[in-house]
Design goal:
- The chain is mainly α and 129 residues long.
- It has one domain: Orthogonal Bundle (Cytochrome Bc1 Complex, Chain D, domain 2).
- The chain has six helices and no strands.
Length: 129
């Protein structure tokens, strides 16, 4: 029975990732990879541990904001307390400056809902690897 708390914790950690992948199943990860390449890759990497001007977005879904120890985040993002669920990430991708006022994100937002769904599907696929 000593293993039961660990099993419960593991299942609870997996739920946000499974939910994120299914909640944005309408998005296409292949098209999302193209959106990432044109809209995000100048500042972000999709590879684990490979930060650029912005932090790596590998396994971002389900992660607490400002949690990458190798990246220096703005005070606003550190204090936001955000956990990057699919809904929170979509809101941030839509209007970063509104979701985290005072943050360092230079991107103004992604207007097209279809592109956001594709991008979220791509990010969810990175989390599932």
């Amino acid at each position: 029975m000593r293993w039961l708390p660990k099993l419960v914790a593991a299942l609870l950690c997996a739920l946000p990732l499974a939910w994120a992948a299914s909640a944005h199943a309408e998005g296409d990860p292949k098209r999302g990879a193209a959106v990432f390449a044109t809209q995000c890759s100048e500042c972000h990497s999709a590879r684990e541990g490979k930060d650029r001007k912005g932090p790596s977005l590998f396994a971002v879904l389900g992660r607490k904001s400002a949690a990458n120890p190798s990246f220096v985040y703005s005070a606003a993002l550190k204090q936001s307390g955000i956990v990057w669920t699919a809904d929170r990430l979509e809101a941030y991708i839509t209007q970063p400056k509104k979701v985290v006022p005072g943050g360092n994100m230079k991107f103004d937002g992604l207007d097209q809902a279809g592109e956001r769904a594709d991008l979220l599907a791509y990010l969810a696929s990175l989390s599932a690897r």
